Amino acid sequence: MSEPKNVLTNQIIAEQSKFVYFLLAAAASGIAFAIQRTTDHPSGCWSLLYFGPAGLAWVLSFAMGCWNRFFAVRTMWANVVLWRVKDGSYDNMPDTPERVAWHNDFLQRVAEGAQSRATRWGKWQFRLLWFGGLLFIIGHIIEMATQHPPA
């Protein structure tokens, strides 16, 4: 790969990582805010039916973000090993061309599978973050409507 392509690829990966970490921080903040907002509620408050699922959605969003990072790193690891096998610098280099071809194919499938999983977990991280926010807003509107009825 040419030098400008390498630089661009590295920038894209860095920006994707920043975005995922931003979503992780947003989910953690949502969890903390939901806990803080519901600490003083009486246990019979039915608007908590919306806050609980919102918190659960944020917890799941955080978990999905962690899985996204796991599979993103696994993708990069598989690609690094694949490059090393292709250029002959891998420490445990296979001894026959057939085994080299098998390793190339295997590592390519590992990288593609990990990338697919990282993408799927990243999409669910984003969806659950927004869904939790929507549930929290709905719960807050219901809480305000029941505590302060219109005159």
The biggest beta sheet is recorded as: none
Helix/strand/pairing class, anyone? mainly alpha
Topology as a string of helices (H) and strands (E): HHH
Say how many strands there are.
0
Helix content: over 70%
Q: Quick one: overall form?
A: elongated
- The count of domains is 1
Beta-strand content estimate: under 5%
What gyration radius follows from the Cα positions, in whole Å?
Answer: 23 Å
Oligomeric assembly: single chain
* DSSP helical segment count: 3
Low-confidence stretches: none
Mean of the pLDDT scores? 82
From the N-terminal CA to the C-terminal CA, the straight-line distance is 69 Å
Written description of the protein model:
The protein is mostly helical and 151 residues long. The chain has one domain (3-147). The chain has helices spanning 3-38, 48-87, 97-147.
Question: Main attributes?
Answer:
151 residues; mainly alpha; 0% strand
Structure at a glance:
The protein has 151 residues and is mostly helical. Helices cover 84% and strands 0% of the residues. It starts with a helix and ends with a helix.
Describe the secondary-structure layout:
Blueprint: H1 3-38, H2 48-87, H3 97-147
Helix pairs in contact: 1-2, 1-3, 2-3
